[in-house]
Amino acid sequence: MAASGGGVAQQAELRRIEGNACFKKARLGAAIDCYTEAIALCPDVAVYWMNRALCHFKRKEWAKVEEDSRRALALDDSLVKGHYLLGCALLDKEEFALAIKEFEKALNLLKSSSSTDKMAEDIWQVLAKAKYLDWEKHSTERVWRIQSLKEACESALQEHHFLSGTLVEDSDGSSNEYSEQIKLLAEVFSKATLADTPVDVPDYLCCQITFEIFRDPVITPSGVTYERAVLLEHLDKVGNFDPVTREPLKEHQLVPNLAINEAVQAYLKEHSWAYRLNC
């Protein structure tokens, strides 16, 4: 029985390897067939489900992506790609809150493993998109409710002053109680929509190289804060010096700027529209 079981597992692994070869050649249909055979042989191996989900992802077959990624995660919840793929499927369904949770799980798994996987950038991009779309959806609803409430308040105020005989302006043309209350009402509702009104992100929250809001800010010995990935690329491709001060700089000298990171998170919590890229 053990030998038979081992033979089945070996056959499944061969099908996975063949599927990977087909995937690299963009033969997605053939790859799906190989992974499907591997799953039939060993349905408890998470990577087979995830690899097939990735093929469906390339084809934008979102229902199948969701199904396979969920099966993969049920077997191994630590799969970064599994959470990423599931998040993408949920994003397509406009289930933004659920998609955000999956993307955040994927990022947290990368951070806990101290990985510098380039996939982090892809995850951040879709996470930012999901958070912006979630804000946009709820913002539209909030603005509509606020406008409806404003109109109802104006109507009630007008009716009150009409019945009280104080609706008309004073004889000298000056503003009366009704007009003053209307102005005050407008100010109150204007302030209520401020959080949903996009403005320029403060400069200190943006990288001096990309002009985008910080994701992983680090500070140099010169006291300048940069986006980590961007600065590392500069050190690797341009030279070991600070881009602004031109002072000598090595990767080991970079220190996470926790204060700026906390400020960014606080700002994004109050202004989710800032998840738009290119601030």
Count of helix runs: 10
CATH superfamily of the largest domain: Tetratricopeptide repeat domain
What distance lies between the first and last C-alpha atoms, to the nearest angstrom?
62 Å
Overall 3D form: flat
Low-confidence stretches: none
Reading the helices and strands in chain order gives HHHHHHHHEEHEH
Relative strand content: under 5%
User: How many structural domains does the protein architecture include?
Assistant: 3
CATH-level-2 architecture of the largest domain: Alpha Horseshoe
Spatial ordering of strands, largest sheet: 2-1-3
Radius of gyration: 28 Å
By secondary-structure content and strand pairing, the structural class works out as mainly alpha
Query: How many runs of DSSP E, i.e. beta strands?
Result: 3
According to CATH, what is the class of the largest domain? Mainly Alpha
Fraction of helical residues: 55-70%
CATH topology of the largest domain: Serine Threonine Protein Phosphatase 5, Tetratricopeptide repeat
Residue-averaged pLDDT, rounded? Answer: 88
- Biggest β-sheet description: 3 strands, antiparallel
Pfam family, one: TPR_8
TPR repeats: 80-113
GO molecular function, one term: ubiquitin protein ligase activity
InterPro entries: CHIP_RING-Ubox, TPR-like_helical_dom_sf, TPR_rpt, Ubox_domain, Znf_RING/FYVE/PHD
